Amino acid sequence: MNVQAQLENAISTAIRELFDTETAAVSLQPTRKEFKGTYTFVTFPLTKTLRRKPEEIAQAIGEWLQSNSPLVRAFNVVKGFLNIELSNEVFVHALADYSRWLEAFPNNTRHSKQEKVVVEYSSPNTNKPLHLGHLRNNFLGYSMATILEANGYDVHKTQIINDRGIHICKSMLAYQRFGKGETPESSGIKGDHLVGHYYVVFERHYREQVKALMEQGMSKEEAEKEAPLMKEAQEMLRQWEAGNPEVRALWEKMNRWVLDGFDETYRKIGVSFDSVYYESDTYLLGKDIVEEGLQKGIFFKKEDGSVWVDLSDEGLDQKLLLRGDGTSVYITQDLGTAEKRYQEHHMQRMIYVVGNEQDYHFKVLFAILKRLGRPYADGLFHLSYGMVDLPSGKMKSREGTVVDADDLVAEVIDIARQITEEKLKNSDMLDSFTPDELNKLYEIIGLGALKYFLVRVDPKKRMLFNPQESIDFEGDAAPFIQYTHARICSVLRKAGESQIKAAFPENHALSEQEEQLVFTLTQFPEKLDEAARTYAPSVLAQYIYELTRLYNSFYAHHSILKAETSEAASFRLAISQATAQTIRKGMQLLGIEVPERM
RNA sequence: GGUCCCGUAGCUCAACCGGAUAGAGCAACUGCCUUCUAAGCAGUCGGUUGCAGGUUCGAGUCCUGCCGGGAUCGCCA
Q: What digits encode the pLDDT tens for the residues A55-70?
């Protein structure tokens, strides 16, 4: 049992013995740092039942604890707040226990829950390359999956690739028309960018046609519908559905280019998937479910043959599930995909990492699956995250304000290169790295900075990305954390040279900072649990930052290897080791690497 | 218009289930490298938590109204 739970029990006992009353579960909070103590018990809620002043209650419980609990060294009362100071051995033992646990983590938590979770993220369209929004999605999804795994779930990472539809036909048509047979190889352009280029070409010519038609007196809506290019794209989609070999061949070729491009990006940014679903494989599957819903009377058919569900009693609308001509819409495909995944994985939970612009869509999807009585319906969760805005507002592909993922990644690595080279030169370390090591280091630092920036913010909130200044290398940023890790590693190396070993001597009297550090370290499992429970990797990011800050302050105010006593030296070394490991394993859960030297 | 989300320091973000004097970073300004890596440490400056009520021992947090911003309400995905 951990210290906090033991204390809470002790307080319950104290209340029973002192006031002859049973209380609801007591809960402690960390003491604010301007007061002495580690845990604080708030007595205000007890004043009514006990009919005493909060100070009196706090004082009485404090005295009881001090004489009855070996955990408690001292206490102080401020208004109704009882601040509890723990005895030395508590910290020493806590660090020893934590270090042992940490050594084995995350192997010691793996598969402890017997529950399978499917996490879907990324899920791009195949008509253009990944952008900044996808990066937030990918880092969030990958990190969430890793965090769930470390919490004991059996995690399966997947995505649904939207590889069919009018969007890809637009790129195909433009390529057919203007491409002159160029390929990623012949042009030297990454496949997804090449296909994206033709999507833009389509849009450009299409806009011209629309404009011309409008000048001839058509309304905008009419012109957009009547423009020859649009009609041709729609015709191409029909041919695709009909299985026209030529169209299919072009589609396969161009999709291959895009998917290869995506793979390259995924590899670069360090995310991965256990499986991939393609819309072209699943888009027809939902139809069986629609049929089933009709038979069960959950769905209904309109005169034109279209199929609908009425969710108005749940505050939602009527929603189309199948067009009058029998073709499927977006949500039809999602029904089918969910079903297929359940058949293949029998998961208890499935998490969709998708932007909050689709909040409504997922409400509807989940409501439908629930009405259909699907066993997995209650385990569905939409991890809805906010959009990434630019200083100019929302990213708009038509206005060319989209921040391309590959460009951004290359840019942050380049900035990392410049800064790191400079720093290494200043500290005479540059020559101690091989060119390969340097390139790896720049990548770790640049990517780390980018990932941390995107993952430190509460997923639910929309966030602002300023290309000029958003990626920090100082302060609340990954390089600060990475640097601290490298620094500790350096201390650990030197400790090895001078034969100093980490230990947990009970007679070492901890300084306030040491107490705080030990306390914060041992919070890691709780934070990990909270991150999983609340679907927020940001709580881990913030925790690691807080730990790093504390350590740096400790580092500046304490000698480690040249400490006053050998007990102090070995205990501080133990703190340092645990901090480095917590940073490394914690950052790993965010998908961020940390170097041993920088 | 209906529904949902958001509004905290000049900027970017925190604040556990309602707890103490609302915290960090950036920016600006001071100090600190003959001592374990200065991407660091210590400090100064910066707030009527959008506004007005309400609930209570206590409200950034819960409730109501208003103001401002965003998303969504397609036989698009």
A: 999 999 999 999 999 9
One-letter amino acid of A109: T
For strands A299-301 and A307-310, give the pairing: antiparallel
Chain length of chain A: 598
Q: Which nucleotide is closest to the Cα of A416 by its C1'? A: B39
CA of A124 to C1' of B6 (A): 26
Write the pLDDT tens digit of every residue in A473-513.
999 999 999 999 999 999 999 999 988 999 999 989 999 99
Q: What percent of chain A has pLDDT over 90?
A: 79
Q: How does DSSP classify residue A382?
A: E
Architecture of domain A3-86 in this structure: 2-Layer Sandwich (3.30)
**Amino acid identity, residue A393?**
G
Q: Which fold has domain A405-589?
A: Isoleucyl-tRNA Synthetase; Domain 1 (1.10.730)
pLDDT of residue A315: 79
Distance CA A322, CA A308 (A): 7
- Cα A546 to Cα A320, A523, A583, distances in angstroms: 49, 11, 11
Question: Which bases of strand B have any atom within 7 Å of the beta carbon of a protein residue?
Answer: 3-6, 11-17, 19-21, 24-27, 35-42, 57-58, 70-77
Determine the nucleotide nearest to A563 by Cα–C1' distance.
B36
* Domain boundaries of chain A, sorted by first residue: 3-86, 165-272, 405-589
CA at A37, C1' at B52: how many angstroms apart? 40
Run of H or E residues at A84: strand A81-86
A596: nearest nucleotide, CA–C1' criterion: B37
State the nucleotide closest to A323 in CA–C1' terms.
Answer: B75
Could you read off the pLDDT of A562-572 as tens digits, one per residue? 999 999 999 99
| A129 token code pair | 């390359």
ipTM score assigned to the predicted complex: 0.95
Position A1 pLDDT exceeds 60: no
